Structures are given as C-alpha cells and as structure tokens.
Automatic annotation (TrEMBL):
This is Uso1_p115_head domain-containing protein. Keywords: Golgi apparatus, Membrane, Transmembrane, Transmembrane helix. Pfam families: Uso1_p115_head (PF04869). It is found in: Golgi apparatus. The lineage of its organism: Eukaryota, Metazoa, Spiralia, Lophotrochozoa, Platyhelminthes.
Length: 191
C-alpha cells in the first residue's frame, strides 16, 4: 500500500506515503536494512529494481516540489545511520544523464559508481530558481549529500570519507548551498 502511494502520480499520495514510510523506519536500523532487499516491478529489460533505486528514479523524474521533498525526506531518513543503505545508494548506477551525459562509459560499458549522487549534485549546482520550495529541495539534497559523507562505511571505491571530504570543490559547494539557504531564510523571516 505504501509503495503504491509512494510512486503515485498524485502529489498527496506520494507525500503521505513517503512520510508514513519514513516514520516507520526512523530509529529502526534493522528495518532500514530489510527495505534494501525489497524489489519492485522489473525494468523494461526484465531486471528487478530495488526500492531505493526506484525512489531515486522517481525523485529525478518528479517535477512537483512536494513529491521531491517527500522522497528526499524519506531518503535522508533511510540513509542516516545506515551505512548499508549509503553503500547501496553510492554503488547504484543511474540511468539518468548528468548534465546531458549518460553515466554509462562508452569504452567499458560499465556504469559509473556514485552516479546517483552526481545527478543530485549537478542538479543543485545548476538550479537557478530561488522560490521557497526549490530552496527546500536544494537544502534536502545537500543534507542527503552530507549524510552520504558522514555515514559512508568507506567500502565503495572512490567514495571513502577522506576522498569525499578532501575535495575542495565538494566543500565549497556544500558551504555555498548552506549559505544560500541561510540567507534565503533570513530574508523570508523579515516578511
């Protein structure tokens, strides 16, 4: 029932299902890991899709901010304090293009690790709309990125904590997003 509502085209169904599911898994590490084994309907090529990957794909495809905020809240709750979920999220390939370039390597045919995170970072870096809901989406994407750094168990190649945090680009990016969100909320609090 929750999965049906989570991937519904109705904004309220998606919102309520994601919030209900996040409250079910909040402070429950065993359930977070069990949800990693949930497989949903298969892709067109016949392979099953994990619930985590389907949530990410729905997040990328959704164009309503309420849907995106609900799914981002669910992903943040799911990945927080669950290194297995962070590992799966960072390891999962994405079929979505990053800045117009697919994550599939033409020479090797392999799919880039961390493509999910790359898609989200590219989206935050290119967002030009500064309305309240888009700022909330950017803030949640930044929070999800920080959760991936903090709860990473260092067993995904290229995504250990030292490499993730030592990149000055990532640090500057996160700082800039936090400053813009802080600035936005200060401005809106005076109205």
């Amino acid at each position: 029932l929750l999965c049906g509502g989570l991937f519904s085209n109705d904004v309220l169904s998606t919102w309520f299902s994601s919030i209900a599911l996040l409250h079910c898994i909040r402070d429950n590490p065993r359930l977070k890991e069990e949800l990693l084994r949930v497989l949903l309907a298969s892709n067109p090529d016949g392979t099953p899709v994990s619930l985590l990957q389907q949530c990410f794909q729905w997040l990328v495809q959704a164009n309503r901010p309420q849907t995106r905020i609900g799914i981002l809240q669910l992903l943040c709750t799911w990945l927080a304090h669950c290194p297995a979920a962070v590992r799966r999220f960072l390891s999962a390939p994405s079929n979505e293009p990053v800045n117009g370039v697919a994550s599939q390597s033409a020479s090797t045919g392999s799919v880039a690790r961390g493509a999910n995170l790359s898609v989200l970072i590219a989206e935050v870096a290119t967002v030009v709309n500064e309305d309240e809901t888009e700022v909330a989406v950017r803030g949640l994407i930044t929070l999800l990125t920080c959760i991936c750094v903090l709860f990473n168990s260092n067993d995904v190649p290229g995504f250990d904590r030292y490499v993730s945090v030592s990149s000055s680009y990532v640090l500057l990016f996160l700082f800039a997003v936090f400053v813009s969100i802080f600035y936005f909320f200060i401005l809106t609090s005076y109205y």
